[in-house]
Amino acid sequence: MTKFFIFSILLFAFLETFSQCNDSLVQIAVSNSGEDVLFLKEFKVKFDKTKTSQPVRVAKYSTFLKAGYKYKFNVANAREYEGRVVLQLFKNSKLKGSTLNLKTQEYKQSFEFYCRRSGSYDILLSFIEGKSGCAVGVLSLIIGDTTEIELPDKNAFLPKEALFMGMKNKLIIESLIDDSYKQTVTANTGRLEYSEGAFYFIADTLGVVTIKAVVKDSSNNIVEELSKEFVVKELPVPYISIQSNPGGLISKDQVLLAGCLSLMFHENIPSDKYKIKSFIISDVYIGNAGKSSSSENFTPHQINFIRNLTEGSNFYIKNVEILMPDGTIKELKTVGYILM
Fold first, then answer.
1. What pLDDT, on the 0 to 100 scale, is given for residue 149?
2. Across residues 259-267, what is the average pLDDT?
3. To the nearest whole number, what is the mean pLDDT of the chain?
4. Mean pLDDT of 131-138
5. Cβ(121)–Cβ(65) under 8 Å?
6. Fold category of 160-233 in CATH
7. How big is the CA angle at 252 (ends 135 and 298), to the nearest 5 degrees?
8. Is-contact 40 86, C-beta < 8 A?
9. Of 286, 35, 279, 288, whose CA–CA distance to 143 is shortest?
10. Whole-number Å distance between alpha carbons of 319 and 331
11. Would you tell me which CATH number, out of the four given (3.40.50.720, 2.60.120.380, 2.40.370.10, 3.40.50.2300), belongs to the domain 21-157?
C-alpha cells in the first residue's frame, strides 16, 4: 500500500544538505573501523568555509550508548576539501573523547570509548579553523575476540524521540493526499493544536504519549493510519559554550572570533525557543564582579577584558540568565576557561 504521509518530529540541528561526497566516505570510514566491530551509526557533515567574522560552524548529533560496552568512533575526510573534521563526544557538557587533542593539537582518525553510564551522548563535528570540508564519522561497537558476546539490536540504541513539557512541540506530517481525503491527528494524553498548516502537541504529563494520524476517504473509510510513540520529558536546561567549547582550554582568537555566547543541549530541541538575557565575564569565580552584557553578545568592555588577558589566565562566564520556552528565567552554572 502506498504510504500517504510520513510522521516525524522536528529536530534541532546545524546540518546542511549533502552532495555525492558522503556515500563513498561512509564506506571508507566503515572499512577503516577495523575488524571485530559492529557498525551502528553514521554522522555526516558538510560545511563551506567559515567567514572570519563568524564562529566556526558545528553539526550536532545525539546517540544512546549503553553501559558495559566499548565503542569506537572514527572519521573520514573528503580529499577534495582542505578541512579536517574534528569529532568530539560529550556527556553532561564533559568531553569524553575527541579526534583532536586540544593540548598537543595532535590529530587522529579515531578514538575508543568505554561506556560506564547508559544514556544520551552528544557528538559534535566541526572543521579545524573553519575550513570548508565534507566528512563522515561512524560509531561502531567493539566486539573483541570472544564469540560469546550477545550482539545488540541496532534499534536498541535508538531511544524514542522526545517531546517536552512547557512548550508547543511542532509535529511534521507530510501528506500526499488531496482535498477529497480527511486527515485527523489524535493523542492519548495532552492536547493538539492546529495553526498555520502545522500540528502542535502540548504535553500535560511526563511519560509516553502515542500520537495517531488517520486518513479517510470521502466515504469515511480508513485509507491509511499510523501511530508513533514519543517520550515526554521535562523542558531541558541548556549549557553555555563559546564556539561549542563548554569550558576548559580555549584560545583568545576563538573567544574574540565567536563574539557571543551560544547554548548547547543534551536533547534535540529547537534552540530558537531559548534566549540568553544577561551574563558576566570575570576573572573571579564568586560574586558579581566583572563585565556584564544584557544579551548573548560580548560588549566592547568584555572584548577589551579578554584582549588584556595573558596566556594561562582563567576567566569565568557566570550569572548567566536565560529565558526558557515556558517563560521562566533560569540561571545557568558558571563555566570556566583557561586561555592557551
1. 40
2. 82
3. 81
4. 90
5. yes
6. Immunoglobulin-like (2.60.40)
7. 95
8. no
9. 35
10. 6
11. 2.60.120.380
